[in-house]
Design goal:
Blueprint: E1 7-13, H1 21-32, E2 36-42, H2 49-59, E3 63-66, E4 80-81, H3 83-88, E5 93-97, E6 100-104, H4 107-118, E7 126-130, H5 134-145, E8 150-155, H6 158-171, E9 177-181, H7 185-188, E10 193-197, H8 215-219, E11 221-226, H9 235-242, E12 246-249, H10 251-266, H11 272-289
Parallel strand pairs: 1-2, 1-3, 4-6, 7-8, 7-10, 8-9, 10-11, 11-12
Antiparallel strand pairs: 3-5, 5-6
Helix pairs in contact: 1-10, 1-11, 4-10, 10-11
The chain binds 2'-monophosphoadenosine-5'-diphosphate.
């Protein structure tokens, strides 16, 4: 229920239409009993981003999430950014302060929380990252910061993997990093790897697709984490599980980053039972979008 006193936050993106964040944030508001409302704030013209932010500050919007394509573009308009955001050069959360919007990145701590909850430690482990875009960069920086034993970057466009490797040398010096094209994975993927699937391959509607077909690859993976959450059971995860590994969908990471933003804007801690409830609400929404009943869900 929106009241005259509602605090306002929103999502800056383009396009914004398929985002789960409004459902996530408004469910959090409802379950925690806060007078808070979260709106889609589409900025269609990138040239008007600064104008949009000044307007939001003038209205006193408490906070904003930022996603594709503005996570980097927003930085020049902010009064400051936190260390995680600085490390990866991308911001996903803005919080209104006296001096303007402060930028932070809750994607990385959200991923870290997911790994901690699942009991997955990256320390001294062989980490494989599929992809070299923004999501891959965040995971690779997190892996480097958590003391991974090695990081292998595999990407269709090898130049992007090489550029990310150079950045990792700067941000997490001392961690051995290799960059390779996807089809030479055999040289780059050690036994018992922890594999992060950070490409958009396998995402709805291309749900039959997978970046690497060869079952041998999946036998080298002890754990596989797919940042794709539509569908919840990707071909990547099916192959990981079939080969005897543990597979995790990206939905809890999405929920965690949203909860961290919500906590920052509202100065509270979301209880674990609300976190679980919100995961359930989002899963049900994804099932609805994919035309599937909960009873048919495989995971
Ligand atoms: P994000 O910021 O969400 O990671 P992105 O920067 O567009 O998005 O990156 C998408 C990733 O998925 C990239 O690694 C991309 O590979 P390229 O760098 O070669 O483009 C990968 N990707 C997307 N579609 C792909 C496909 N059909 N086959 C292989 N890789 C694909």
């Amino acid at each position: 229920m929106i009241t005259a006193a509602s605090r306002i936050a929103g999502l800056i993106a383009h396009p914004v239409g398929h985002s789960l964040s409004p459902l996530l944030q408004n469910t959090l508001a409802e379950r925690t009993g806060l007078d808070f409302v979260y709106l889609p704030l589409e900025v269609r013209d990138p040239a008007r981003l600064g104008e949009a932010l000044r307007g939001a500050a003038a209205f006193g919007f408490a906070g904003m999430n930022v996603t594709v394509p503005y996570k980097e573009a927003v930085i020049p308009y902010l009064s400051g950014i936190d260390p995680w955001a600085r490390k990866i050069g991308a911001v996903n959360t803005l919080t209104l302060t006296e001096s303007g919007y402060e930028g932070s990145n809750t994607d990385l701590p959200g991923m870290k929380r997911f790994l901690d909850d699942a009991g997955i430690s990256l320390r001294e482990r062989a980490v494989v990252v599929l992809g070299a875009g923004g999501a891959a960069k965040a995971i690779a920086v997190l892996a480097g910061s958590m003391g991974a034993g090695s990081i292998s970057l595999l990407n269709r466009t090898v130049e992007r993997a090489e550029a990310l490797k150079e950045e990792l040398f700067r941000v997490c010096p001392g961690i051995p990093v290799t960059a390779a094209p996807v089809d030479s994975w055999k040289r780059a993927v050690p036994e018992r790897s922890i594999v992060f699937q950070c490409t958009s391959v396998g995402m709805f509607p291309g749900t039959e697709e997978v970046l690497i077909e060869d079952d041998l690859f999946y036998r080298r993976a002890e754990t596989g984490i797919d940042i794709v959450y539509t569908p919840s059971e990707t071909v990547f995860l099916k192959k990981i599980r079939k080969a005897g590994g543990k597979g995790y969908s990206g939905l809890p990471m999405l929920v965690n980053q949203g909860i961290l933003s919500f906590e920052r804007w509202n100065g509270l801690t979301v209880p674990d039972e609300v976190r679980a409830e919100v995961c359930g609400v989002l899963r049900a929404e994804l099932d609805r979008r994919e035309g599937r009943s909960a009873a048919q869900r495989e995971t």
